[in-house]
Amino acid sequence: MPAHTLSAPSFEVVKAMTLAGLGIGVLPHRVAHQDLQRGLLKRAIMANVIPTSFGFHSFGLVTRNGTLDRPEARILLDVIQSELTKLTLSI
To answer: Does the residue 57 lie in any domain?
Structure first.
């Protein structure tokens, strides 16, 4: 469990915190799209399409460009990707 977890009232606040370098954010494509295109955010991982009770969705994380160069970020993302793969295979 991370030492610090931040919560936010909206995806726009999560995006602002991610852009400020405060961590990794989970954002809908519609919120992250422009900053991904500009290179300000980078898609960290993208899992396979996961079926849910409200349709099929892909899951991804975004991070400020350059954050993935840090070893601890790569370790965290590898663990998340492994867990998402298990989830996808069990559905």
So the answer is: yes
Q: For the purposes of burial, counting CB atoms within 10 Å of the CB of 14, is it exposed (0-12), middle (13-18) or buried (19 or more)? A: buried
- pLDDT tens-digit map of 11-49: 899 899 888 888 778 888 888 889 989 989 888 766 666
Let me know if 88 is exposed, middle or buried by CB neighbors in 10 A (0-12, 13-18, 19+).
Answer: middle
Buried b (16+ CB within 10 A) or exposed e, 40-76: ebbebbebeeeeeeeeeeebbbbbbeebbeeeebeeb
Question: Could you tell me if residue 1 is inside a domain?
Answer: no
**Residue 4 lies inside a defined structural domain of this protein:** no
pTM across the whole model? 0.63
